[in-house]
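U., I forgot to send this yesterday:
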Amino acid sequence: MNLTMLLDMVVEGMPDRILIGDRTDGLTARELARRARSGADLVRAADAGTVVYLGGNGPAFPVALFAAASAGVPFLPVNYRLSDEQLDDVLGRQARPLVITDSPERVRGMAAVTLEEFAGPTAVAAEAEPTRTHAHTPRTPHAHRARPPTRTPTRSPCC
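Result:
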């Protein structure tokens, strides 16, 4: 199982459940998956070797995490409090990084998008529901499955 499959399972079972944020304007499972797919498309278009997240905690973080997983590239969250020297060192060790950040001025010369551009509501184009690539087979209970025997705790011979 991978992260993308985990999100797909949640979308299949509870598509309208709020996963991130509050009830009034939070992200549902369906919306998180939609934004993650859009982000994955952006990651692939940028030919990124790593998705680097440089920003505070918020809805863009899980979107970036699931987008990287969907695109099949490593996800690297980086502490936004690093000095510019430390940040340059970390980013210099990454293969074709796509930096998702709220401070694009800190990563000049590298592929970067803002948190809002990457994961905001306007970043997602209207699209139809995804088509399933696999058939859902309902599970049936196994009547023949026996309960495991209950073990009674015993004292160790040394005590």
